[in-house]
From TrEMBL:
Superkingdom of origin: Bacteria
InterPro entries on file: AAA+_ATPase, ABC_transp_ATP-bind, ABC_transporter-like_ATP-bd, ABC_transporter-like_CS, P-loop_NTPase
A Pfam short name: ABC_tran
Cross-referenced SMART domains: AAA
SUPFAM superfamilies listed in its UniProt record: P-loop containing nucleoside triphosphate hydrolases
Species of origin: Phytohabitans kaempferiae
Protein name, UniProt field: ABC transporter ATP-binding protein
Keyword entries, A-Z: ATP-binding, Nucleotide-binding, Transport
Domain ABC transporter: 3-242
A molecular-function term among this protein's GO annotations: ATP binding
Keyword Mitochondrion carried by entry: no
Length: 279
């Protein structure tokens, strides 16, 4: 098991942000954690990577129980890169004074790797995220939003993580780049990396997630196969999310631009793939 969260509680003072949350993510599985602002999804992600200490419950990452780790143990785990967090804003999460290559290889150099090996790894990872090697010398401010987002994913991949948490991974992208990102995340999933998508928009991850967990007021109110959650939601809040997701509405109600049509086609194809895997 790559990730297992059991009966997790998180308090901020007297406020309980998470209540008895349980979530399991297997190797090569993609799980979407969906909820509105304030639902607790970012708190869950931060607890998994040790940025928030749980009040109760257990977190196990790749066989290690990390929920009771102290600061030194968390630093050691982060250096190993077992779990990686890709933040929502790629421009703010990249050092503006470091080149793309320097940003990607920094985790390896911190672990004591050689610069030559790190440079080779950077070139290989840039190709893996479908970016040209010429971008290695550029600064983050010289890249498009879609390119910056893929650079942050390349940096996360440099340590061969078992789990990657992606916070609102496509919210800042236009429709065409969103399709490319969803296809790339599917490649990562198929390659054996466990993915956790944190998002407020069910439609943005429905096509690439194997399972969807819906967070509402700090509790998981629905958890099941993506196709089931989208097509037959049980909880009233989930039904509201499905109804408000543009990519999950009828074609007549959706916009008709070429990029939007491509996005809907990609989402339909991925949902059919998920359905075939589940049957």
């Amino acid at each position: 098991m790559s990730l297992e969260v059991s009966n997790l509680d998180v308090h901020y003072g007297r406020t309980r942000a998470l209540r008895g949350v349980s979530l399991a993510v297997a190797p090569g599985e993609a799980v979407g954690v969906i909820g509105e602002t304030g639902s607790g999804k970012s708190t869950l992600a931060r607890a998994i990577v040790g940025l928030v200490r749980p009040s109760a419950g257990r977190i196990v990452v790749d066989g290690e129980e990390v929920s009771a780790y102290n600061a030194r143990q968390w630093r050691a785990l982060r250096r190993r890169g077992t779990v990686q967090y890709v933040f929502q804003d790629p421009l703010r999460s990249l050092d503006p004074d470091l080149s793309v290559e320097e940003s990607i290889v920094e985790p390896l150099l911190i672990r004591g790797g050689s610069r030559r090996e790190a440079a080779e790894r950077a070139r290989a990872l840039l190709a893996r995220v479908h970016l040209d090697e010429a971008l290695l010398a550029r600064l983050p401010g010289e890249l498009s939003g879609g390119q910056r987002q893929r650079v942050t994913v390349a940096r996360a991949l440099v340590t061969d993580p078992r789990v990657i948490i992606l916070d609102e991974p496509v919210s800042a992208l236009d429709a065409a780049n969103r399709v490319r990102a969803l296809e790339f995340f599917k490649e990562l999933r198929d390659g054996g990396t466990a993915l956790v998508f944190i998002s407020h928009d069910l439609g943005s991850v429905a096509g690439v997630a194997d399972r969807i967990a819906v967070l509402y007021q700090g509790e998981i109110v629905e958890d099941g196969p993506a196709r089931t959650v989208v097509n037959a939601p049980r909880h009233a809040y989930t039904r509201l999310l499905v109804g408000s997701a543009p990519t999950l509405r009828s074609a007549a109600a959706a916009r008709s631009s070429r990029a939007d049509r491509a996005e809907r086609a990609a989402l339909r194809e991925l949902l059919q793939t998920i359905g075939g895997q589940a049957s």
